[in-house]
Amino acid sequence: MRRFFAPFVIAVLALVFVSGASASLFDDDEARKAILDLRQRVEQLRQDMQRQIDTAAQDNAQLRRSVFDLQQLIEQLRQENARLNGANEQLTRDTAEIQRRLKDIAQGVDDRLRKVEPAKVTVDGKEFIADPQESNTYEAALATFRKGDFTGAQVQFTDFIKRYPQSGFRATALFWLGNALYANRDYRGAIANFRELLATAPDHPRAPESLLSIANCQIELKDSPGARRTLDQLVKTYPQSEAAGAAKERLSRLK
Question: What residue ranges do the domains of the chain occupy?
């Protein structure tokens, strides 16, 4: 504001100076004329300065309004940013929850499919396809055998073979059924099951053991000649098997 008052002050001082000087240099009319002229100039200067002050005040008010509007805009932007951040966090939580639910649903579908869809299994080195119920029935029978419940295992394996005559488990089931019968001292029944395994799956990994088990049954039945023939067959047919080594030892004891 100082720059607006300076010209006005200078003009006033000039008026005073000239007024004093005019008393000595001019007559009354000329002095009055000079004073009036200076007064007009001072008034003009005052008005000009007032206009400048008013303009500056308006500019200052406009600047204040602009600053206020800018502050409001900044606050609105801050609030909108906070709202968006909150919405983003909620969206992140919702997305995580949806992903978790989808994972649970997918896992549930997989679990249900595994219960009904056939799957690849491997037993005694043989790979084949079996449905879950078939696998569960076999595993249950085997678990019964391993618990030492040979009568229960005999019933379960017999039922399994009847229910799944074409099963990939069949040869192994015959083997364990033969062992259950042997444990129950049904030697002839055991021999029948072992022979069925040999007839239907001579290349099965349990075939050498089946021949050895037949020989054991024959020894229990006091059929030493039959046991020797079975052991000889085992050594000739499966010479590289562990069962063949056991067969040679038993042959030496039978002679």
Answer: 2-108, 119-254
Quote the CA–CA distance of 206 and 229 in Å, as a whole number: 19
Q: Tokens representing 179?
A: 């062992």
Structure tokens at 225: 């000649």
Q: Are strands 126-130 and 119-123 parallel, antiparallel or unpaired?
A: antiparallel
Cβ-contact 176, 141 below 8 angstroms: yes
Six-digit token string for 224: 């030493």
d(CA 193, CA 67): 100
Instruction: Quote the DSSP letter at residue 164.
Output: -
Q: What is the sign, positive or negative, of the torsion defined by CA atoms of 64, 65, 70, 75?
A: positive
Alpha carbon distance 101, 138 (integer Å): 35
Rounded to two decimals, what is the model's pTM?
0.57
CA angle at 149 for the pair 146 and 155, rounded to the nearest 5°: 105
What class, spelled out in words, does domain 119-254 have in CATH? Answer: mainly alpha
Section 191-215 average pLDDT: 97
At residue 115 the predicted structure's pLDDT band, cuts being 50, 70 and 90, is low
Q: How far is CA 93 from the centre of its chain?
A: 15
